[in-house]
Design a protein that fits this description.
Layout: H1 7-11, E1 40-45, H2 60-67, H3 81-84, E2 87-92, H4 100-116, E3 120-125, H5 131-142, E4 145-150, H6 170-176, E5 180-190, H7 197-206, E6 209-212, H8 213-219, H9 221-232, E7 236-242, H10 264-277, E8 279-286, H11 298-323
Helix pairs in contact: 2-11, 4-5, 5-6, 8-9, 9-10, 10-11
Length: 332
Amino acid sequence: MIDPFQRWASVGEKPDYAGLLTFAGVPYTQDPAHLEGVDVAIVGAPMDDLVSDRPGTRFGPRAIRAASSPSGPELETALDAISELRIVDFGDAPVLPADPVHSHAAIEATVAQVLAAGAVPVIIGGDHSITEPDVRACANAYGPVGLVHFDTHTDTGAEVFGVELSHGTIMRRLVEEGTVDPQRYVQIGLRGYWPGEKEFAWQREHGITSLFMHDIRNLGIREVISQAVETVGGGPVFLTVDIDVLDPAFAPGTGTPEPGGMTTTELLWAMREVAVHLEVIGADMVEVIPTGVGSADITALAADRIIREILGGIALRRRSRNSGKPNDKEER
């Protein structure tokens, strides 16, 4: 007779609503010693103290974990990134509510632990300000990095409502401190009513590439991603995704929604392409505000699949590198 407490182990799987809540059911650890030999570590960054509109993204990491599905092959590529890569859930950075400076320092230190072990950090936010400590930790390990940035907004304001530290200013801060190489920085999916000419003039002065929703509409997502990959080129790259790059029909749970955005189909494909063709050394998924529970939360569900496609691209790139064969450019 099978011991009922061993049933999940005997069949090799469990329902995604049972057991410890980790991303895709991967093993959990908060011990840096257990990062040895790990390929990717999931890190939660549950803070939203620097939003300019609707709060709630502090609950994003937990919601995305709850929406994540168990391991299994992705049908388009027949690749199971969760099984192919050695992945752990490294828990949440020890943030402090109402203390964004401390929280950023805690996030940077946690991401640095992952990088020191030779793993790729994938950080779940949280508001977009978490990208500042995420990228800074990566640049401390690799030097100035390229940046692929999917978003409705540029987040390159000098200030937002008179405040310099905000989720709308981090990209300017990263460029001005030399952490991000502006010549290797591409923004994708921009639309709406902010920012204005002052911010875009600053971007042009620094050589930042902006690709708008009308570029995706007129050129198609394949050409836009091809241009982004060519612009960023070789070298370490950080990938940041604000869920509001999606049209609110696909991701209503976010603080600053803007109609007219990308479809989930377009974005999922783009995630894998970027991770296949560029040297992604870190990534984050930000600005998810839960609106439901588990997979009923379509915004968190989209965020989970975005991360899964990034992992799939990383796995495909490593498989290609290990086989000695070049990446297949035909998919672009």
